[in-house]
Specification:
Layout (H helix, E strand, L loop, with lengths): L1 H19 L6 H17 L5 H15 L2 H9 L8 H24 L5 E10 L2 E10 L2 E12 L2 E9 L2 E2 H33 L7
Antiparallel strand pairs: 1-2, 2-3, 3-4, 4-5
Length: 202
């Protein structure tokens, strides 16, 4: 009898342990959560200038894994760099992406975003979205990786064109011909150029 009671008690403990464990959010939910927060910031008329950019930057960097993005962008050249090279590339690449796209994000004019599906395979997922601006529809997919029970973006596919692959082809050639120092110089110059460009409108 005691043995049976022990087994029942053990079973109940297991049931309650599993039921109390927090469920992992879906990748679509986490993409939508970040997008909704970004749109809320863009609609806040009291938040402008550097304060708005800093808020947008924090939201975006919270959802993207720039280390994995950097590794995939450099491909085979990632392991050819030293630890300092790798660290420097992650910093520059995240700054470059932010400067390249945050201006476009700030040009938001009430486009509608629909979430059209997701595919999950192990710790990888892809979330499909469509952005409608007037009569124009743009397909944007987010490739994500599961880390510590949260989903992080490591690639963006715009109209079937991978952001990572787009950079990989040009960066690989630069590293091959000019080394990491040449690549860093080019990236720093591009970041400076983007920071000094006029604001995007429309």
């Amino acid at each position: 009898m005691l043995k049976l009671q022990t087994l029942v008690l053990s079973g109940l403990i297991l049931v309650f342990s599993f039921s109390s464990a927090p469920a992992i959010p879906s990748p679509t939910h986490q993409v939508q959560e970040t997008v909704d927060q970004v749109i809320e910031v863009l609609r806040d008329l009291n938040l402008k200038g550097d304060a708005r950019r800093e808020t947008l930057s924090r939201l975006i960097r919270k959802r993207f894994d720039f280390t994995i993005m950097s590794q995939r962008t450099l491909g085979k050249y990632w392991n050819e760099g030293s630890a300092e090279d790798q660290k420097r590339f992650v910093v520059l690449f995240s700054d470059l992406l932010e400067e390249s796209y945050i201006g476009r994000i700030e040009a938001y004019t009430n486009e509608t975003i629909s979430y059209t599906g997701e595919r999950i395979k192990g710790d990888r997922a892809e979330v499909a979205t469509r952005v409608r601006n007037g009569n124009l529809d743009v397909q944007i997919n987010y490739r994500m990786v599961l880390l510590n029970d949260s989903w992080f973006v490591y690639d963006v596919i715009i109209e079937e064109v991978s952001l990572i692959k787009n950079y990989r082809s040009s960066y690989g050639e630069i590293v091959r011909n000019e080394g990491f120092s040449g690549l860093f110089s080019r990236m720093e110059a591009k970041i400076e150029e983007l920071r000094n460009r006029p604001p995007v409108s429309g």
